[in-house]
Amino acid sequence: MKIHKEGHLLLIVLLVIFAALGYAGSSYLPTPWFELCVVVLVGFYLTVLQFFRSPIFKITKNEKHIIAPADGKVVVIEETEESEFLKDKRIQVSIFMSPVNVHVNRMPVKGTIEMFKYHPGKFLVAWHPKSSTENERTTMAIKMANGTQMVVRQIAGAVARRI
Q1: H or E element: which one contains 44?
Q2: How many Cβ atoms are within 10 Å of 124's Cβ, its own excluded?
């Protein structure tokens, strides 16, 4: 496993801040409070660390398979109208990524990127009805070798707040 490059600076800064807080706390806090603070800081640091982890997966290549582009929980599988690029009905699979999921996305199929568009927006919580249309997001259209087209959309939320 490795750590995604976006997390390197944040993890180093947090480590320095937490080390300074730990040093100061050891001098000024009674032992039980100091130990509690250390547990909380270590827990928070490990949470941030796991957010930026990027495990190396071994994926068996198969042109007929679509892999999940994100870790998380499948929350919706339904037919919907894709109005931005394909402009027809498609099956939508929505994956919710909690803060403990790996936040690295993968290409779900082998293909050519036909369109990529960034949409600035809000950072509503994921369960808000308008989060998929009003939140910051990117849309990517992919054309596979057999001519099939698909759209992958990444939507930022209240916690991660960026694509």
Answers
A1: helix 31-51
A2: 19
| Mean predicted confidence (pLDDT) in 92-107 | 88
CB-CB neighbours of 113 under 10 Å: 11
pLDDT at 152 over 90: yes
CA–CA dist 19, 69 (Å, integer): 36
Q: Give the pLDDT band (50/70/90) at residue 4.
A: confident
* Pairwise CA distance, residues 35 & 43, whole Å: 12
Going by their DSSP bridges, the two strands 111-119 and 137-144 should be labelled as: antiparallel
pTM: 0.77
Interatomic CA distance for residues 18 and 3, integer angstroms:
19
